[in-house]
Design brief:
It is a single chain. Helix content is about 30%, strand content about 20%. By secondary structure, it is an alpha+beta fold. Helix 12 runs antiparallel to helix 13. The two termini are about 15 Å apart. The C terminus is likely disordered.
């Protein structure tokens, strides 16, 4: 039985990340990048798909864990009948090669410990050849090599397919285990193994504390905001500035179901919210790096604009299934890659132009060719905005006239006009204004359901969609507009257990809109959009209640997955999810600005 999703904490080095369970087991790790094949994949299968567990040999009587303040350094403290031990897990950022460091320290008594590293390369499938090199165990398979070093005495146990160590840590003593990746054709020991673990730990803690100190948010939810920003930073691929949606794949939206997607890539739909979150929080360098990634990724013919790209901006993300992985709690198939890269989604044009306009207004330098890119995208959009598409939610059913997609076509035209005004380039502004007005009229006519008194999911439908909550934020209609206020009121129809679904759930069989079988949880980001919309329409107290409800479902170290299952009381979907943490930061800023009252009552966290 898999551990609950909320049992996992994140450590990362700004190029990849690992998921560490409460039991001391690293059950997910891709090397050397977020989108590389996994070498530890027990999270999506069984222990034989790869894990690295460091834990006491004796039964644990008490366990606690926490990140060190303002860092991504994780401490886990175990009490046993013979003593107390602490394991500190971290990944040094921007090291010469990715590595995971685990420092085991005796706090009292003497605690016998056990480490088992079972590497399975190529998505948890390939058993490596393991050999000894000096004091290291080196596992090799194909292009990959992983080195494991212990900086103190251990008893190595013989096993062909794993590396096992037993050792005892008395009070006041430390031992560090360091795992480092290298290309298998490079014979030299990876550089991090020559650096003392204590030095790596200090440098890592100092890096994160310096970074966190730049946060501008000073409101009542600062701890939650800083933790979300650290998480967002940890999901950033530093060499390019790209931000992945999550470090995991195929954690399900429905336990036992098929709503299992690979989120280890960068989505254009998150462009503006990511940029806004970074800029308002004080992270201009990261915002500029994200824009740089965006401009490079979308370069080329606007007809080839994708919804999702790799961390390096790569376009080919072929979706495959891994039948050798049983799936998280039997949720199959396990997917690698994402076919949404080939979908037609109108909304991404608005997302890109909104992000570029925000960048320009923020004074972020833009390459000279960007205006040509704006003109090319608008030329394409003028010809194609009336077509059906797959929409914000990347439905795998037939294309529809999604209201949000049309709103984003309006955003594209609006931001193009604004950018032209800022740059003194108004040659096409008349055409773009005409398109903007036409789209607006059509959405207000075809997207509004007078009987339901709400904007709906698609033309001719009466179904609700949480994306309508974004209308006032996008500037499509003011929050005071009665149609906006009525739409926010109608969203109670998507509530489930105090949280908001993205759209109505289906029964048995394939969903009539997205074409996928099975239900799903409430979306964390949608619940936070709801809080924003409540605040914008003058219901600040209700907005705070929704926001605090979301804070209460974070796990014990402050992380959020994509979804929440109110009935089961558990997280669902890939984790930690960038969109959930971005929305948390944005809502904290919005509520602090709209109702700067006394500090809110703290809720106990889930988990």
């Amino acid at each position: 039985m898999s551990a609950p999703i909320e049992d996992y904490a994140l450590i990362g080095d700004l190029e990849t990340a690992a998921m560490v369970g409460r039991d001391g087991s690293v059950d997910w790790l891709c090397l050397p990048r977020f989108d590389s094949p996994a070498c530890l994949a027990a999270l999506l299968g069984t222990p034989d798909n790869g894990f690295w567990r460091v834990a006491p040999l004796a039964p644990v009587t008490s366990a606690q864990r926490a990140y060190r303040p303002d860092t991504l350094v994780l401490d886990t403290r175990w009490e046993t009948p013979t003593g107390i031990v602490r394991v500190t897990d971290f990944m040094p950022p921007r090291a010469q090669t990715p590595c995971v460091v685990r420092v085991i320290e005796g706090l009292s008594g003497a605690v016998p410990m056990h480490s088992e590293l079972r590497l399975r390369f190529h998505q948890g499938r390939v058993v490596p050849w393991i050999r000894a090199v000096d004091r290291c165990a080196v596992a090799v398979a194909g292009p990959d090599a992983v080195w494991l070093d212990a900086d103190g005495p251990v008893s190595a146990l013989d096993r062909e397919d794993s590396t096992l160590y037993d050792f005892t840590v008395p009070a006041g003593r430390r031992l560090a285990l360091t795992l480092a990746w290298s290309p298998s054709h490079v014979p030299q020991t990876p550089a991090p193994l020559s650096v003392p673990a204590e030095t790596l730990l200090k440098e890592t803690g100092d890096f994160w504390r310096r970074w966190s100190a730049r946060c501008r948010y000073e409101g009542p939810w600062r701890d939650a905001v800083v933790r979300s920003l650290i998480t967002l930073k940890a999901l950033t691929y530093a060499p390019t500035g790209g931000v992945v949606a999550a470090p995991t794949t195929s954690l399900p939206g429905c336990i036992g179901g098929e709503r299992n997607w690979d989120h280890r890539y960068c989505w254009l739909r998150d462009s503006t919210l990511t940029l806004s979150c970074l800029l308002r929080s004080g992270y201009r360098d990261e915002a500029a790096a994200w824009v740089g990634w965006l401009v490079r990724a979308i370069a080329g013919d606007p007809t080839d604009l994708q919804t999702v790209y790799g961390v390096g901006g790569q376009r080919l993300l072929p979706e495959t299934e891994a039948p050798w992985l049983l799936g998280y709690e039997g949720s199959r198939p396990v997917r690698f890659g994402n076919s949404a890269a080939g979908q037609f989604q109108l909304d991404v044009y608005g997302e890109v132009l909104d992000a570029l306009c925000l960048s320009l207004r923020a004074g972020i330098p833009m390459p000279a060719h960007v205006w040509g890119l704006v003109e090319a995208m608008m030329g394409y959009l003028q010809r194609h905005w009336r077509e059906p598409d797959q929409g914000l939610w990347q439905v795998r059913g037939r294309g529809r006239q999604f209201v949000h997609s049309k709103v984003m076509a309006w955003v594209a035209a609006d931001r193009a006009v604004r950018m032209g005004e800022l740059l003194g380039r108004n040659g096409s502004s008349g055409q773009w204004r005409a398109m903007r007005d036409e789209v607006h009229r059509q959405v207000c006519r075809e997207g509004w359901d007078a009987r339901r008194q709400s904007f709906v999911q698609s033309y001719g439908s009466s179904a609700l969609d949480a994306s309508a909550l974004l209308m006032p934020r996008l500037g499509f209609l003011p929050a005071r507009d009665e149609r906006v206020r009525a739409t926010v009121q109608a969203m109670r129809g998507l509530e489930h257990g105090g949280f908001v679904r993205r759209y109505a759930a289906s029964g048995e069989g394939a969903h009539p809109v997205d074409g996928v079988r099975g239900p799903e949880g409430a979306f964390v980001a949608c619940s936070l959009w709801y809080a924003d919309a409540l605040a914008e329409t003058g219901r600040a107290e209700q907005a705070r209640e929704v926001f605090e409800r979301v804070l209460a479902i974070r796990n014990d170290v402050g992380l959020l997955a994509e979804q929440w299952a109110p009935d089961a009381g558990r997280q669902l979907g890939n984790a930690p999810q960038a969109s959930s943490h971005i929305a948390l930061v944005e809502t904290a800023f919005a509520l602090s600005a709209s109702s700067p009252g006394p500090a809110p009552r703290r809720h106990a966290r889930a988990g």
